[in-house]
Amino acid sequence: MYLLLHYLQNTVKRALQKLIVRIPQQSPPPDDITLSAASLKVLKAAHQLQKTMHDSYIAQDHLLLCLIQDSSISAVIKEAGMTEASVKTAIESSRGNRRVERLVLVDFCTDRTVH
C-alpha cells in the first residue's frame, strides 16, 4: 500500500510540475499581481461549497474538491491513473461528517499583524 501511495504521489507531483513549467513567466515580475480567472473560479466555488457544507471557513477539502473539476487538474488525476470520483470519495471519507468550525492555522502560526 505504501509503495502505491508513493507512486501516486510522485506521479501527481511530476504531472503538476509539467503544468507549472508551462505557465508563462515574466522577469522582472509585474508590480501588481492578481489571481487568474481559473484561480478565482476555484476560490468562488470553494466558498460556495463551504456554505453548502455549513462550515465556518474554507478548508483544503473544499479547495481540492473544486480543483479536481478544473480541466488541467483533472488531466493530472487521469495521468496518475485515478478518477475524479475516486479522489472525491477519498476526500469525503477522510473528512467524515466533521465540520470546519475554526481556523486550523491558529494552531501552527503566530499572527504577526497583531501589535
Task: Describe the secondary-structure layout.
Elements lengths: L1 H21 L14 H16 L7 H8 L3 H9 L4 H12 L20
Summarize the model shown.
It contains five helices and no strands. Helices cover 57% and strands 0% of the residues. Helix 1 (2-22) runs antiparallel to helix 4 (71-79) and helix 2 crosses helix 3.
Mean pLDDT: 81
| N- to C-terminal distance | 48 Å
Give the H and E element order: HHHHH
Total domain modules:
1
Given as residue ranges, the uncertain stretches (5+ residues, pLDDT < 50) are none
Beta-sheet strand percentage? under 5%
Please compute the radius of gyration using only Cα atoms: 17 Å
According to DSSP, the number of beta strands is 0
Question: What does this molecule look like?
Answer:
There is one protein chain. This protein has helices spanning about 1-20, 35-50, 60-65, 70-80, 85-95. With about 120 residues, the chain is an all-alpha fold. It is globular. The model has no long low-confidence stretch (mean pLDDT about 80).
Question: Which properties best describe this structure?
Answer:
115 residues; 5 helices
